[in-house]
Amino acid sequence: MGAALAFRENTAPVPGTPSAYSELVKEIREHAKSLEVASRLQAFGAALQYYESKQSKNTHYYLVEVNHAQRTLSVTGFKQSESEKATAKYLEVEKKIKDTSPNSDAVLVSVDSMNSLRQAYPNYFLDTGVFVNALRAILAPPRVIGKGRIRQT
Q1: Quick check: 62 and 77 in contact, CB under 8 A?
Q2: How far apart, in whole angstroms, are the C-alpha atoms of residue 70 and residue 96?
Q3: Cα angle 141-145-149, degrees, rounded to a multiple of 5
């Protein structure tokens, strides 16, 4: 994706990526589909926006679980004094995912507030819409503009 963005912005190409734009888009399309990138990023972004309004002032650890196949989401908060409990629960969830739910993700983060979480992980969690929109633009078919010229967006 970085190589496609570099191409769009006329900056240096990313080493080790296809030099032909069409091959690059084909590769991105394959990865985006197999990894379900858009739905995963949208789910994480939605999760944190929802739970930001529900947070407790005493919450320091957040365990975020997303099951993409079932379209479910869970965010569990833990107090700062519950770090061992939070870590144990995270390890339990990770084992469960590995054994039975390959279409799931889990992350345990430690922050003083959801606002701190937003500042610490803006691209991964809350600014996912910008990335997803860029991905969709790159994967969209080329547009024909006047006299048969093709423009990549």
Answers
A1: yes
A2: 15
A3: 90
Output the six-digit token pair for 62: 């957040």
pTM of the model: 0.51
Rounded distance, CA 44 to CA 36, Å? 12
Measured CA to CA in angstroms, residue 64 lies from 35, 38, 40, 76, 131 at distances of: 18, 17, 12, 7, 20
> Which residue's entry shows tokens 């969709």?
136
pLDDT of residue 76: 86
The whole-angstrom separation of Cα 118 and Cα 116 is 5
The helix or strand, by DSSP H or E, that contains position 39, with its residue range, turns out to be helix 37-52
- Span 43-54, pLDDT tens digits: 766 766 666 656
Predicted local distance difference test score (pLDDT) of residue 121: 57
Place of tokens 């590995």: 98
Three-state DSSP class for residue 19: coil
Query: Residue 30: is its pLDDT beyond 80?
Result: yes
pLDDT digits (tens, 9 = 90+) for 78-129: 999 999 999 999 999 999 888 888 778 888 988 766 666 666 655 545 467 7
Q: Quote the CA–CA distance of 89 and 65 in Å, as a whole number.
A: 11
